Amino acid sequence: MYKGDTPFGLDIEITKLVFNKANVCFKFIRLPTSARGLAELYKGFVDVLPSASFNIDRANNAHFTVPYRRERMRLFTRLDLPPVKSLTELFAEEYTFVTNPGAYYGEELKQILQISWYQQRLVEVASVSRRIELVNKKRIDFLIEDEYTGYYYINRLGYDRLRLHSYIVNDNAIHFMLSRLTFKNEEIAAINDAIAQLQPDIQAILERRPASTPTK
């Protein structure tokens, strides 16, 4: 997340903490989408991506550190709906969804999007504020978003009619992805050691999350 050209947020704080502890120099650059970030990392034009979920395709192209936090992908909506047992139920009811291009939302959504009819129910938008705005204006039914990010922007933008649906789309560990063209084993070990040593500090950052939006 950015204020003007200045990066900020939970993962920015943790990145600064970890890489300073590991004595690894860094600077932040802004890219338009997660998909672009992955492409640049694989080519060696970007060295690190924070807030990265593990999957086999990514692991074939980059190193992963040990996890530094957990990420829960949730459904934000203005609809008043009962609990569901699967995401497929909502796609089958022809609701619409918006996501971030290139982001990983778990195997359930990945399998759902193998079906062309369901693919038509989902659009990708790079700007998180624009994604939330589309749901707030009822142009899209559901935003699938990291819980922390969704809470932050809802509070920041004053969208108090948006609510969190009870279904959890994906809950997994979050890592730093490191370029295979840049990082040596010694540097990866130093970053992993820093993450382990900084767990109390990371937990303190996590506990400063914005207050929750009521859950449906």
Structure, explained:
- By secondary structure, the chain is of the alpha+beta class.
- The longest helix is centred in the last third of the chain and has 13 residues, at 185-197.
- It contains ten helices and nine strands.
- Strand 1 (2-3) and strand 2 form a beta hairpin.
Main β-sheet description: 7 strands, mixed
Q: Which CATH class of the largest domain is shown?
A: Alpha Beta
Structural class: alpha+beta
Number of domains: 2
> Would you identify the CATH architecture of the largest domain?
3-Layer(aba) Sandwich
- What is the end-to-end distance? 26 Å
Number of strands: 9
- Helix and strand element order: EEHHEHEEHEHHEHEHEHH
Radius of gyration: 18 Å
Mean pLDDT: 92
What is shown here, in short?
With 216 residues, the chain is of the alpha+beta class.
Question: Which descriptors apply to this entry?
Answer:
216 residues; alpha+beta; D-Maltodextrin-Binding Protein, domain 2; 7-stranded mixed sheet; two-stranded antiparallel ribbon; 23% strand; signal
Give a topology summary:
Layout: E1 2-3, E2 6-7, H1 10-21, H2 34-43, E3 48-53, H3 56-59, E4 62-64, E5 69-77, H4 87-92, E6 97-99, H5 107-112, H6 116-119, E7 122-124, H7 128-136, E8 142-146, H8 147-157, E9 163-179, H9 185-197, H10 199-206
Parallel strand pairs: 6-7, 6-8
Antiparallel strand pairs: 1-2, 3-9, 4-9, 5-8, 5-9
